[in-house]
Amino acid sequence: SIKYLRYADDQVFFIPKGKNYKGVVKAASNELYKIGLNVNQKKVYMWDNISDLSLNRAQEIFNLLDPE
């Protein structure tokens, strides 16, 4: 039920409310580490709704995604 979007060097996870987002970030970090990449924990953000994400990231592409 988690949706994933990658663009350039950014990754976005769409995680339903109630799911453990920290667990998702940890799992992604572990997998990236295996191939020599690291997640910058200072750049990990969580927004409660897609409109906040769109405003904060200034990416119109998020309007094309179905948040459900």
What's the layout of helices and strands?
Layout (H helix, E strand, L loop, with lengths): L2 E5 L2 E5 L6 H14 L15 H8 L11
Antiparallel strand pairs: 1-2
Report the strand count. Answer: 2
Helix and strand sequence: EEHH
The largest sheet, given as strand count, sense and whether it forms a barrel, is: 2 strands, antiparallel
State the helix count: 2
Helix content: 25-40%
Please compute the radius of gyration using only Cα atoms: 12 Å
- Show unreliable segments: none
Distance between the termini: 9 Å
Proportion of beta-strand residues = 5-15%
Q: Order the strands across the largest sheet as they lie in space.
A: 1-2
Structural class: alpha+beta
Shape designation? globular
Mean pLDDT: 79
Characterization of the model:
This protein has helices at residues 21-34, 50-57; strands at residues 3-7, 10-14. The chain has a two-stranded antiparallel sheet with strand order 1-2. It contains two helices and two strands; from the N terminus they run ββαα. By secondary structure, the chain is α+β, with helices and mostly antiparallel strands. Helices cover 32% and strands 15% of the residues. A hairpin with a 2-residue loop joins strand 1 and strand 2 (10-14). It is globular.
Summarize, please:
The chain is of the alpha+beta class. The chain has helices spanning 21-34, 50-57; strands spanning 3-7, 10-14. It has a two-stranded antiparallel ribbon.
